[in-house]
Specification:
The chain is an all-beta fold and 191 residues long. 0% of the residues lie in helices and 42% in strands.
Length: 191
């Protein structure tokens, strides 16, 4: 199944949150729920002003063979908060596999200065195995990391550009608690 803009990045999924401390629009835009979704392509869309996570893959049964290509994720979770869970462009839980993120742009992801737990917000937060993160642009600010991997992740992070992305800790890619698979990080630009 393909959900694609007729004209690149002219289909704008806008939750309309005003970030005045309370939720005024939608929590997030797409939730791939149970049973685990498979064989989806999201292409050339813009996800903007979501209160929490723009594209959430958190089903208890694994989804697989999902591609996000040529999309733009911007102004995600832009508010002051002490919420402990992350506000991400895309989140994929453990068990999901064969995910591809290709040619996307991530900008202004995560909570605003004055918040606590700012390092919990990422452009991509992935537990998924056999995942490909390639040809993406991550630029600032992003509260946490451009790419945050966690237990269950395996795959390749290649040919991406990271610029002006961090507002809290150092670095652009976090390989965290990764004991279950091979990871290759190659040919990325860090500015």
């Amino acid at each position: 199944i393909t959900l694609q803009a007729e004209h690149k990045q002219k289909a704008i999924l806008d939750c309309g949150n005003a970030y005045n401390g309370s939720q005024t629009g939608c929590m997030g835009y797409i939730y791939l729920g149970n049973p685990g979704p498979s064989y989806w392509v999201f292409q050339d869309l813009v996800f903007t002003r979501t209160y929490d996570i723009a594209l959430l893959m958190n089903s208890p049964t694994p989804g697989h063979d999902i591609t996000v290509k040529g999309c733009r994720f911007e102004q995600i979770g832009q508010r002051v908060t002490s919420q402990t869970t992350g506000m991400d462009g895309i989140y994929a839980n453990q068990g999901h596999y064969n995910l591809t993120f290709d040619g996307n742009v991530f900008d202004n992801i995560g909570r605003l200065p004055g918040s606590t737990y700012m390092a919990n917000d990422h452009a991509l937060y992935l537990h998924s195995s056999n995942s490909t993160v390639k040809n993406n642009v991550f630029y600032g600010p992003i509260s946490g990391w451009g790419v945050q991997t966690a237990i269950g992740f395996s795959g390749i992070i290649a040919n991406n550009t990271f610029a002006f992305t961090r507002t809290t800790n150092s670095g652009d890619v976090m390989l965290w608690d990764v004991a279950s698979g091979n990871i290759s990080v190659q040919n990325n630009i860090f500015y």
